[in-house]
Specification:
By secondary structure, this protein is of the alpha/beta class. Helices cover 43% and strands 14% of the residues.
């Protein structure tokens, strides 16, 4: 975790939006925050994130080698937005999945005009369920043209029974279920293809389609923003 000198800043509405977005997606990288908070460029986004870190509202943790730092909301940031005191621990095995979830949301925003405000994340859905109620929720859902779509990012195969139960439940609850898988040759994709016969609302995308957008391919740095790579100095 990076520790900076705590300093006060004038908190802007965009700062509050950054805090809310990081909280509802659990974790974010700088490049995700640039999109979610509608910065014109990564440099301006990284500068603001540095100020929020120095003021103690967000933190950045380096979790996996080769993967850019992960931003999280601190207790101070949570208090500012009334988000509650409990901050979930980062599960290392979940990081790449969570990055793929955010990449998918950005993909739908850029390619299908889906507004981020119209997305309900898994964490938000669990909060709506209420304390103590734990059941499967999609990675996110959205409503468009009076139809509700759920999105599932599946990078590792679950048990057959659990997987089939989720597919069945999604068929009953949502107009469409979109699954993002590693590739069309993996067992996950083949199971979904076979399930299409019975569950006709299934659509399949690959992670390469999602993460192969122009935005993600800039400078061939899938996980790294300018601040992470050292291309810019934010101590000015």
């Amino acid at each position: 975790m990076e520790v900076g000198v705590v300093s006060e800043i004038v908190v802007l509405e965009r700062d509050r939006k950054i805090i809310r977005e990081i909280d509802r997606w659990r974790v974010c990288q700088g490049r995700h925050i640039k999109e979610l908070a509608e910065f014109s460029g990564q440099r301006a986004c990284d500068r603001r994130l540095r100020k929020l870190m120095q003021a103690g509202y967000v933190s950045r943790e380096k979790i996996l080698y080769g993967v850019a730092g992960i931003y999280r909301v601190t207790n101070k940031g949570a208090k500012l937005e009334g988000l509650g005191k409990t901050r979930n621990k980062i599960r290392i095995e979940q990081i790449r999945h969570d990055i793929a979830v955010l990449d998918t949301a950005i993909y739908f925003n850029k390619n299908h005009g889906l507004a981020y405000k119209n997305i309900r994340t898994e964490l938000e859905l669990h909060r709506l369920d209420g304390f103590g109620i734990r059941k499967h929720r999609p990675d996110f859902i959205f409503k468009k043209e009076d139809k509700t779509t759920c999105v599932e990012i599946e990078l590792a195969l679950k048990s057959k029974n659990r997987f089939e139960t989720i597919i069945s439940d999604n068929f009953m609850k949502y107009d469409k279920q979109i699954w993002v898988v590693p590739d069309f040759e993996c067992k996950i994709a083949k199971t979904l293809q076979n399930s299409k016969v019975k569950y006709t609302n299934i659509e399949i995308l690959t992670i390469s389609e999602i993460q192969g957008t122009k935005e993600n391919n800039e400078n061939e740095q899938l996980f790294t923003s300018p601040m992470e790579s050292g291309q810019i100095d934010l101590d000015i």
